[in-house]
Amino acid sequence: MYIKTLVPPALIVVAAAILLGACSASQAKERPDAPGPTRAVTLDQALAPAPAVPPVAIEPDPGYPMPAGCTGELMPAMLHRFFAALNRGDAHGAFELLDPAAPFFDLGVDVVAFARAGARAPVVELRTEAAIAAYLAAHSGLHFTFTQPVEGGFGDPPHSVYIATREFWQVTSPEITAAGKDVVRGGGKGGVDCETRRLGLVIGPAF
């Protein structure tokens, strides 16, 4: 004689779940490469900003290779030499890189005054060796670095190369620090004549 035992459906579901869980655990032990349990991510964690990337500081290289022809590398070669001269306080060396027929180096906004007064800072024209020397003497300790590798493109006329970008340099100095800023960053535009190999440049802080 057989006696039928009725098992409630709910118990069958629970038993099946336990059995499946045991099988999964057994398979995970047999597979050491199996992924672990997924961790829940909170909304705050998902919306948290990415860690800040430290800014790049590329030191100007006075010995940056000078290309033989009219190539885009002429611009970084000239800018490396120019900013290296400014860093060592060499007004003559910086002026020698400008076009003697029309020397052109302007601070679209005075970088030191910008640290103190923001956009109200004046434009400074440094188009003579004496003007460059006076500015460097008045603001000792200026140190320029590049925030990214400098690249040049071909301009118009085609025998020149140019640069025009919002940010490619940064500068520090004791005066900038005293004004409550660690650094002033900016960009500018300029060109190099491939025949004379002389530079014209306007730089200013990025607002």
In short:
By secondary structure, the chain is an alpha+beta fold.
Structure, described:
The protein has 207 residues and is an alpha+beta fold. It is 33% helix and 21% strand. The protein has helices spanning 9-30, 43-47, 74-87, 91-95, 111-117, 129-138, 174-178; strands at 104-107, 124-125, 143-146, 153-154, 160-172, 184-193, 198-205. Strands 1, 2, 3, 4, 5, 6 and 7 form a seven-stranded mixed β-sheet that branches. Strand 4 and strand 5 (160-172) form a beta hairpin.
Please give the structural blueprint:
Layout: H1 9-30, H2 43-47, H3 74-87, H4 91-95, E1 104-107, H5 111-117, E2 124-125, H6 129-138, E3 143-146, E4 153-154, E5 160-172, H7 174-178, E6 184-193, E7 198-205
Parallel strand pairs: 1-7
Antiparallel strand pairs: 1-2, 3-5, 4-5, 5-6, 6-7
Structural class: alpha+beta
What is the radius of gyration? 32 Å
**Largest β-sheet summary:** 7 strands, mixed
Stretches where pLDDT is under 50 for at least 5 consecutive residues are 1-7, 10-30
* Overall 3D form: globular
Question: What attributes characterize this protein structure?
Answer:
disordered N terminus; seven-stranded mixed sheet; globular; 207 residues; Nuclear Transport Factor 2, Chain: A; alpha+beta
